Amino acid sequence: MDWHDLAYFVCLVEQQTLTACAEQLGVQHSTVSRRIERLEQALSLTLFDRLGKRYILTQEGELLYAQAAEVQKEIVTFERMAINQNAMQGSVIISAPPVLANEVLIAELPAFRERYPDIVLHVRGDVHFSDLYRKEADIALRLSRPTQDDLLIRTISHVNYGFFAHRDYIEHTPIEQWQLIEFQANARLLDWLQDLIHQHSYSVIFSSNDLYVTYSSVCQKLGITILPYFLAAKNPALLPINPIDRTVMIMHEISATTASHAHIDKQAIPLVQSQPLYVVMHPEVRRSARVRVVADWLGSVFGK
Predict the structure, then answer these.
(1) Dihedral pair phi/psi, residue 210, rounded to 5°
(2) Which helix (H) or strand (E) holds 56?
(3) How far is CA 115 from CA 106, 109, 285, 290, 297, in A?
């Protein structure tokens, strides 16, 4: 039996269709089908019932799935340990939210390449959590703290968010007609926005789960939205807003609010929110010198 067939088995259980599994593993769906058939023949068992395009575990398959998942983790661990962990060459995969990858990491890559020419970085702009157990990434940057206890998690920085609007929108829109652009992809920020809507009679004019779309919409003078300060700084026409008093904020107010995490004028809704930025690794990956170098580099980049 080819032990790598277990990876196809575990993936198909979780994805349920050949197409989804093939996309996850980066192969053709016929490859997935062939590997599953070979595993069933090797085990002399039927692991799945085929219901249309869906693959549903049989009773025998259910009994084997948990053990197969554990074995697959052990295989990945073994492969990691077999690599020359001290080599300062090779590839490191970084999973990061697209806005951090595009707006922060890319600008720092030339300096990294000059210092570590033999380390090739693969930067994946992911909005979902990459599976570090299956080596979808070596290092993950996340704004939400993972729940797995066995992962290595370190806070390397904080990202500050505030309300912003285009200068022309503020000048030409009566304050009683100010409307909000909703960013849906971050639960904490969405709750913040919903509090503002309910307490201060705002309406939503546009909604998106993509931060770049949200940013573009406020640049198009569509309304007020929540943005990270580093992204809003790309456009000098975007001004920080106090949506409670419906005024433009000035720098000493922003600095005081950010530093103390307090509320201006003791309002119930904060005007600036700070979210931790985490670097996350699997414990086995940490043994790699090049991965540690990249993790330390990320800490220096976002700790500026």
Answers:
(1) -110, 120
(2) strand 54-57
(3) 15, 10, 21, 12, 11
Strand-strand pairing, 238-242 and 152-166? antiparallel
Give the C-alpha distances (Å, rounded to integers) separating 81 from 69, 74, 287, 288. Answer: 19, 10, 8, 9
Rounded to whole angstroms, how far apart are CA atoms 115 and 131? 29
pLDDT for the residue numbered 262? 41
**Sign of the C-alpha dihedral computed for residues 128, 281, 99 and 214 taken in this order:** positive
Tokens of 66: 């948990």
Distance (Å) of CA 285 to CA 218, 234, 298: 41, 35, 16
Greatest CA span in the chain, whole angstroms? 74
User: Any long-range contacts for 37-43 (C-beta under 8 Å, 24+ apart)?
Assistant: 38/2, 38/5, 39/1, 39/2, 39/5, 39/6, 39/8, 39/9, 42/1, 42/2, 42/5, 43/1
Cα(206)–Cα(208) distance, integer angstroms: 7
Do 131 and 102 form a contact (C-beta atoms < 8 A)? no
Strands of 90-218 (E only): list them. 90-96, 119-125, 139-142, 152-166, 180-183, 204-208
Mean pLDDT in residue range 32-61? 88
Tens of pLDDT, residue by residue over 116-131, are 998 999 988 876 665 6
Q: DSSP letter for 224, please.
A: B
281 in Cβ contact with 130 (< 8 Å): no
Beta bridge partners of 141: 279
d(CA 20, CA 22): 5
Give the tens place of pLDDT for each residue, 169-186: 999 999 999 999 999 888
Radius of gyration of the chain (CA): 24
Sequence-distant (≥ 6) Cβ neighbours of residue 202 within 8 angstroms: 178, 179, 180, 196, 224, 243
